[in-house]
Design a protein that fits this description.
Blueprint: E1 2-7, H1 13-21, E2 25-30, E3 35-37, E4 42-44, H2 47-54, E5 59-60, E6 73-77, H3 85-90, E7 93-97, E8 105-106, H4 109-115, E9 120-127, E10 137-144, H5 151-172, E11 187-188, H6 204-213, E12 217-220, E13 223-233, E14 254-255, E15 259-261, E16 266-274, E17 280-281, H7 282-289
Parallel strand pairs: 1-2, 1-6, 2-5, 6-7, 8-11
Antiparallel strand pairs: 3-4, 7-9, 9-10, 12-13, 13-16, 14-15, 15-16, 16-17
Helix pairs in contact: 1-5
Length: 298
């Protein structure tokens, strides 16, 4: 099958390689533009462009170049741009979307599923239509979300499942897509820094979801303080003995010295990153910072 592939980030690399391994003829890869990265601000290609060049495929940053190639189908995976009506009129397209549509249409379905506490998510192979992820569904597969998996780990799992689903459906031939239900539609808006802020008055469960999504941050001694890994915890009774004349501990208070009071219980910091430093074990940080009794977020 002659394909045009649209994709940009790391998660779109494995599906591209899977299509090539299955002997589909990828006649053009359309990706995002090269960007400046690193301290030297050198220009480097996106992950899909680098993979496509490694595979010997033709690459373009201009979606309109699709109009000049002969292809049977377009395949879209995390492209990051809206496909124009002009292109859809020229070439039928499918999209590998990382949620169980109609839940979590939009840019950040993996992260939003974790933040919402969903027990399941999945992958859908859908037709590309006008509107945000509104096309009919060719096939889908469910993936369970446990309460420890990070967004990065879940993304890897979904990409593996989705790559197999995509190749299988193209190999057997696409049937008629099933229209999406209008019940249960939700939108996975792009994450904002406030979504990653740790409000210590929240429940431990909610705080740990933010940590699992990544880039979770608070403040310590008026500097940004990232929490990279943490778990729920139960302090020893002796650690909670306090003067009955004193008010209850403020959420964010550090004891032990890596346990932090939350709105309903405690979490234990495992890996942290103080501003201006590399990520480190929380116990190593505590030995140097001596944070006992201080309050994160103040």
């Amino acid at each position: 099958m002659k394909l045009v592939y649209f994709g940009t980030p790391d998660m779109a690399v494995e599906p591209l390689r899977a299509l090539c391994a299955a002997k589909h003829d990828v006649v053009l890869v359309v990706t995002g533009a090269d960007t400046r990265r690193g301290r030297g601000k050198s220009i480097s290609p996106c992950a899909v462009k680098a993979a496509a060049l490694d595979l010997g495929l033709e690459v373009s940053n201009d979606p309109l170049d699709v109009l000049s190639v002969d292809a049977d189908l377009g395949v879209v995976v995390a492209f990051g741009q809206i496909i124009s009506t002009q292109l859809l009129d020229h070439l039928s397209m499918v999209n590998l979307h990382f949620s169980l549509l109609p839940r979590w249409r939009g840019a950040a379905p993996v992260e939003r599923a974790i933040l919402a506490g969903d027990a399941q998510t999945g992958v859908c192979l859908m037709e590309v239509a006008e509107g945000l992820d509104t096309g009919g569904i060719y096939a889908s597969e469910t993936v369970e979300i446990d309460n420890r998996i990070t967004a990065s780990e879940l993304r890897e799992r979904l990409v593996a499942v989705g790559s197999g689903l995509l190749v299988n459906e193209l190999n057997v031939g696409l049937k008629h897509p099933k229209p999406q239900s209008m019940q249960g539609v939700t939108y996975a808006h792009k994450l904002h820094p406030t979504d990653s802020h740790l409000n210590w008055g929240s429940s431990s469960e909610d705080l740990l979801r933010v940590v699992r999504v990544g880039n979770a941050w608070s403040s310590f001694r008026h500097k940004r303080f990232k929490v990279i890994s943490a778990i729920s915890a139960d302090p020893e009774p002796s650690e909670l003995v306090c003067d009955p004349q004193q008010p209850p501990l403020t959420p964010g208070t550090i004891i032990n010295p890596c346990l932090v009071k939350t709105g309903d219980s405690w979490i234990e910091l495992l890996i942290v990153q103080p501003e201006g430093k590399a990520a480190m074990g929380a116990s190593d940080w505590a030995r140097g910072a001596h944070p006992l009794g201080e309050v994160l977020g103040q």
